[in-house]
Structure formats: C-alpha cells, structure tokens
Amino acid sequence: MTLKPLLGQHHVSAITANAKENYRFYTKVLGLRLVKKSINQDDTSVYHLFYADERGNPGTDLTFFEIPNAGQTYPGTNSISLTSLRVANDESLLYWKNRLDEHQVEHEEIKTKYGRKTLAFRDFEGQRLEFISDETNQGVAGGKPWDKSPVPVEHGIIGLGPVKLTVARPEITAKVLTEIMGYREKESIQSDSEGESPLRVFETGEGGTGTEIYLEEKTDVKRERPGRGSVHHVAFRVETEEELRKWVDHLKSARIANSGFVERYYFRSLYFREPNGILFELATDGPGFEGDEPYESLGENLALPPYFENQRAEIEAKLKPLNTKE
Q1: 77-98 per-position pLDDT tens digit
Q2: Which residues pair with 208 in a beta bridge?
Q3: Taking every annotated instance into account, which residue ranges of this chain make up the domain VOC (predicted)?
Q4: d(CA 16, CA 126)
Q5: What residues does each domain of the chain span?
Q6: Which pLDDT score is estimated for 113?
Q7: CATH class of the region 9-318
C-alpha cells in the first residue's frame, strides 16, 4: 500500500473556558474569521468554534472547545506547547507588536528563532502563541485573510506555522513521525535566543512553515496538566477520504491503537496518540465549511451536522447564547 505524504498542518484544537471572550479576542484582536460556530461532536453541550482565513482553508484553522469549568493549565511535558501563526513578512511583526500593545496583550519582543523572525504572545487565558514571519519561507502555501477583518489583509494571519511538541522521551515520538507518518527530520537547531531549548525539526510534503513540527525534550518538569489555555490536539492534512481510509489500514497494520474512520461532516478524521500521549488527528482537506452555510455568512449561526439536526432544540437549550453576528 502506497501512502501519499501528509500535506502539513490541518488545524489545532485548544480549550477555552469563555466562548464570548474567546470570540472577541480571536476575531476582534487577531482578526481571524469565525468560519463555523458549532458543537463539540463528542459533547454537544459545549461550543466548538473554528477560526481561520476567509473560508476556512485547511492549514489555517485554529479551533476551540468551550469547557466552562476548565481549570488552570499547569504547563509541562508531553504536550503541544506552542502554536505558531504565519504572517507574510517581517514588517507584519512590527504591525502586530504595536497592535498587541494597543490591546494590552502580553507579548515578548521580536526575536530571531530558528532562522525566522517571531513574536511570542499569550491570549487572555495563557494560550501559548507565536507569530512567525514567512519572509524567508518556502514550501506549502498559506491561506488568504478575510477582507472584512479589522486587521489589514497585508498583515493578516495566513495560516498555522510550526507546532511544538514538548516530550520527555523524544526518540519514540520521532520514530512515529518518521517511520509511521512519513515525516523527514530536517535539522536540529539551537535557538538564536537565550534560554530557548534546541529543537529537532520535522517536515512533510512541500515543507516550509506550514508543515513543520518542532520536537523539544524536557525531562526536568512534570507532565502538563491541561485546562483553559492548553491545546487538545493537532491535526494533519490528508488530501482525500480515500487516502484517509488507507491511513486507517496503515495504522492498524502498524498495531497503533486508533479511532478508525470518524465522520466530522466538515472533514473526515482519524485519531491516535503518539507514545508520549499527545493526541494526533489526520483530517481530510474537504468537504469544507460551505456545505451548510453560504460564504457570506459563515459562522453567524449555530451550525449542526445533519446527524445532529433532529436534536437542535435540545442542544440550543443547553448552550449559552453567543452573538457572532457583530
């Protein structure tokens, strides 16, 4: 069986305790478009919010499950410890530094890390984020920022960049990335910034920031205790449903426990945990977010996959109202 290479990041899903403030921050401050207001399909009592480029192109989605009683995150190992967001060039980092100051968002200074300009910051719940400049990047293309965003298109977020995995035993994660998932180890790099750990860099497909995984070893901290502001899982792009079904067979033959094929309506998925316990998802590029809402009004109303539609009244009764039309 021949598998096509994974295409790079598909989405990152994180946890928030406050959907209203989350919506405000990611749309009004970061300028992402809410392309889908839906539910956690495994727990229909909470929202699942999808932020992305103008139409939710794969590789641009940052999503959040609302868990109102989520406690504080205690950062540690065996976690997805950083999500980076691509912007067009170094000049855009200057724009973002000023914008974060205007909105009183905690951030670091612009740094050169791993050969690219970056700007690390945190959202209102401590979510660990970083802008990364695509000025010197080559590889998988980014998306297209929404032209109705409060952020000028030329400085808008164009997709997900490298995702950092912090683990206690890097060799077993590296083995899954290379031998099971087909990633290639690109380099081992020391940061240009004091205090940053050396990282191993893996990439797939066309390469570039939209495909890279950073692997960091930490043995002097406890396992992360997730809560609000933590990342739940990272998903990687598979071109088609046919290809995804091959991955189901591939993982089965490699004796890796997995979810099997899962219907998510907006895409099709497969879940498994790598040996350090981090949850990975493989997700198809389509069908996308416009099957149940027109492009012009994406994210404005509660969208339910058809197999939940007969429960709409019950589901809406449990959800706290969230106005996403303004």
Answers
A1: 999 999 999 999 999 999 999 9
A2: none
A3: 8-134, 159-285
A4: 10
A5: 9-318
A6: 83
A7: alpha beta
